Each structure stands twice: as C-alpha cells, then as structure tokens.
From TrEMBL:
It catalyses: malonyl-[ACP] + acetyl-CoA + H(+) = 3-oxobutanoyl-[ACP] + CO2 + CoA. The gene is fabH. One of its GO terms (biological process) is fatty acid biosynthetic process. GO terms for cellular component: cytoplasm. This is Beta-ketoacyl-[acyl-carrier-protein] synthase III. Its EC number is 2.3.1.180. Keywords: Acyltransferase, Cytoplasm, Fatty acid biosynthesis, Fatty acid metabolism, Lipid biosynthesis, Lipid metabolism, Multifunctional enzyme, Transferase. It holds the Pfam family ACP_syn_III. Pathway: Lipid metabolism; fatty acid biosynthesis. GO terms for molecular function: 3-oxoacyl-[acyl-carrier-protein] synthase activity; beta-ketoacyl-acyl-carrier-protein synthase III activity.
Length: 334
C-alpha cells in the first residue's frame, strides 16, 4: 500500500464577486455594413435585433481588452491580482497557437501566483470558464479565479459575406470568482454535439495555407438556419435543466442573460421557458452584436450598471455556439 496522500479541499460554495467589461471605441452601424454587403438596416434589425456593433482598432488587441476588463472586475470584487490562483480565458480569436493568451494577460496583470490557460468553447466559453472556476474554488485548487471572455471577431469576419458580416462584434468581459458562505453558482448543464461541427467554423484551417497560400486569411462561416433552429429549440431543455438543478423555477429569476447570438433566438427561448414578463432580459446585442465568449459578461455588466438587474439577484446564463457546444447555470449576481 502506498502512503496515503492529502486530497485538495476548498470552501463549500463559490460566487461571482465582481464583473467588468471592455467595449472597443469604434462603433460600426448597420448602414456602414450595408456599404459593403447587399442588405439593409431594416433587414438586419428585424432578423437579428442588431443596430450597431463595436469593432476593435489596431491598439485594441485581445490582450489589451482582456487586461482592461479584468482590471474592472478585480476592482469591483476588491481583489488584488496577486490573490488570483487561476486565470482562465475563453476565446477563439487569440490568433497564436501558443503561448496561451491567459499566460500573457496574467503576466500583464501581475497575477504572479496564478496558473493560466485558455479555453476553446466559442460562444459558450464564458459559461464553461465559470463552471471550471467554481470547481477550482470549491475543489481547493485556487482561492480566487479570474474568468475572461474576449473576442476580436472582426479579425475573422469576411466583410463581403452576406450571411455573417452583420453578426459579429468585438469586446471583453471578465468575472472574479471566489469563496462564498452560501450557494451562489448553480450546477452547470453542459455538453457538446460534435456531429454538428460543420454548422459554424472557419472557411479553412490554418494548415491549408501551407498548400495554398493564395487562400489568404480565413473567416468564420456558418449555416445560419441550422444554428438558429438548434439554438431556439434544443437549448430550451438545457436552460430548464439548469433551473431544475439549481432548485428554482423561471418565476424565481431576477434576470435572464443568454448568449447574445440573435434577438429572435432570445425571444424564442423566453416564450418556451414561459419566462414571466417582469424578468429583465439581456438585449445587449442591439448595440454590441454577437461577441461570442464576451457576450454574457458584457451583458451582465451592462444590466447591473444600468440598474436593469439587481445586485444579489438570481440570473440564468446560457451560452451556445461552434462545436456545437453549450453550457448553462444559474448564478447570484455580484
Ligand atoms: C444569419 C441569420 C440572421 C439569417 O437569417 P435567416 O432568416 O436564416 O436568413 P436566410 O439565410 O434563410 O435568408 C432569408 C432571405 O434573406 C435573404 N438574405 C440573406 N442574408 C441577407 C442579408 N444580409 N441582407 C438581406 N437579405 C438577406 C436571403 O437571400 C433570403 O432571401 P429569399 O427569401 O428571397 O431567398 C439567421 O439564420 C441567424 O441568426 N442564425 C443564427 C446565427 C447565430 O446566432 N450565429 C451565432 C451562433 S453563436
């Protein structure tokens, strides 16, 4: 028999202590998008709910946006960078295979005691990061965890593609997760359906450039209708299960903060969930577009800042996207 070793142990519960966001300075309206593609402000607004989005300037890199959002989240949480034991960044637009963006950002923040790694779970990335953060805190691997969702989707957008040019935006959102006396992050409901991997992806992978350098730079492409149907119908049971696992019903919610993919997907979910009319719903997509991993923390920050959702209230989060992958949980808002 080998000598018995110690198991890690942490506090019984974890919570979001603070959130922060970064919105790039450049506002891009539907009219500007329609100068390139054959479309109209009316079509984009009615089909997606998007009126404008933010596209990063050259200086607004994924690293710069992450550090800025993280600084706000740390200040809101009252936590110093040295107290972080882990930095998780969810992104699909850190355009270097290695090192991770998280290692770079942790260094810039002065998070000298933190492990750091990136997660690739597309538009479900923030909810994946949050689940990992809560497990790390409760498991005793880290006392405080910084979760960042950041994207520069404009880098991977073909401005001439009529099926995607109007959807995506750039930005960063961050949350600090730490110990809690009471339950404040519910069980995650997550999964992956890799059989639908072709629904959203790159036009070609980086290694294709070795054979065909003339291909240029890849862009995101998606089968809009397939994604729309999947998200509108198959994500509802996932959301219901997250409520059930947290031990609450839709009536108990103080906010619904779904991934900001398309306002019509959000509306379909509200109806199917029978969400009471008085529950505020994140509609940040109108001014921010679809910012993938950044969309939920950005929407959460805006709802709290504008007094739309109450501090300490219960919010249902659900992220879904390329993979296809998804993750949902109920959280107590910071
Ligand atoms: C992308 C999306 C807005 C397209 O809307 P849609 O209603 O499915 O559009 P379709 O591709 O079926 O096209 C419908 C019509 O609009 C037209 N159309 C397509 N793109 C257009 C555009 N940019 N401007 C104007 N008309 C357009 C089509 O030509 C078609 O015309 P027709 O009926 O005369 O043939 C929608 O599918 C969607 O939001 N899907 C989910 C995407 C998403 O959330 N992705 C992120 C996942 S995390």
């Amino acid at each position: 028999m080998p000598k018995q070793i110690q198991s890690p142990a942490g506090p019984a519960h974890a919570r979001i202590l603070g959130v922060g966001g970064y919105r790039p300075s450049r506002v891009v309206t539907n009219e500007q998008i329609c100068q390139v593609i054959d479309s109209t402000d009316e079509w984009i607004t009615t089909r997606t709910g998007i009126k404008e989005r933010r596209w990063a300037t050259a200086e607004e890199t994924v690293g710069m946006m992450s550090v800025s959002a993280a600084g706000k989240a740390l200040a809101a949480a009252g936590i110093e960078p040295e107290q972080l034991g882990l930095v998780i960044i969810s992104t699909v637009t850190h355009l270097a295979q290695t090192p991770s963006l998280a290692a770079i950002v942790a260094n810039e923040l002065g998070a000298v005691n933190a492990a750091a790694f990136d997660v690739s779970a597309a538009c479900a990335g923030f909810c994946h990061g949050l689940a990992l953060a809560q497990d790390a805190v409760r498991g005793g691997s880290a006392e405080y965890v910084l979760v960042i969702g950041v994207e520069r989707l404009s880098d991977l957008t073909d401005m001439n593609d009529r099926s995607t040019a109007f959807i995506f935006g750039d930005g960063a959102g961050a949350a600090v997760v730490g110990p809690s006396d009471t339950p404040a992050i519910g069980p995650v409901v997550w999964g992956a359906d890799g059989a639908q991997y072709e629904a959203i992806g790159q036009t070609f992978s980086w290694d294709a450039l070795r054979e065909q350098p003339e291909l240029g730079f890849p862009a995101l492409r998606m089968n809009g209708q397939q994604v729309f149907r999947w998200a509108s119908y198959q994500m509802v049971p996932v959301a219901k299960k997250a409520l059930e696992k947290a031990g609450i019903t839709a009536e108990d919610l103080d906010a619904f903060i779904p991934h900001q993919a398309n306002m019509r997907i959000t509306d379909a979910m509200i109806k199917a969930l029978k969400l009471p009319d008085n529950v505020p719903v994140a509609r940040d997509i109108a001014r921010t577009g679809n910012t993938s991993a950044a969309s939920i923390p950005l929407a959460m920050e805006r709802m709290l800042e504008e007094g739309e959702a109450p501090h300490g209230g219960l919010a249902l989060l659900i992220g879904f996207g390329a993979g296809l992958v998804y993750a949902a949980q109920v959280v107590q808002l910071p």
